[in-house]
Amino acid sequence: MAWLLAGAGYALSLIGAASIGLFVLPLPVLATVLLARRQPAARGLPGLISGLGVPLLYVAYLNRAGPGTICTTVTGGQECTGEWSPWPWLAAGVILLVLGVAAFVGRQRRAGLRP
Q: 44 near 2, Cβ under 8 Å?
């Protein structure tokens, strides 16, 4: 779980590079250093891959009505925002989640086969 959060932090830093990314980046770096020092934590390393997909899934969710200009009714008028297509974000997020799970399962199977 900790590796998943570290991976999500790296992806959030990359997605938000123009705004908060630089301020978020020290947290996953610190988490990686602390986790790498603990031997038992190395088992969950594939969670880093899955964690990269979590912010991408969130961006896909935020753009779920896109692509195009989407207007919603608010008190006193309308609010319009431009949204991207959610499909590339969703595909990349799901692929990273599946790759992380597959790496974890493969690693567990290899560890179980060793004497």
A: yes
3-state SS class at 39: coil
The residue whose two tokens read 């199977």 is 109
Q: How many CB atoms sit inside 10 A of residue 8's CB?
A: 23
Kindly state the average pLDDT of the residues 38-65. Answer: 86
Residue-wise DSSP of 57-95: HHHHHHTTT-SEEEEEEETTEEEEEEE--HHHHHHHHHH
Residue with tokens 């990273």: 96
Joined tokens for residue 12: 């959030």
| pLDDT tens by residue, 78-103 | 999 899 999 999 999 999 999 999 99
pTM of the model: 0.76
Residue 72 exposed, middle or buried by CB count within 10 Å (0-12, 13-18, 19+) = exposed
User: Among all chains, which residue has been given the structure tokens 């690693």?
Assistant: 107
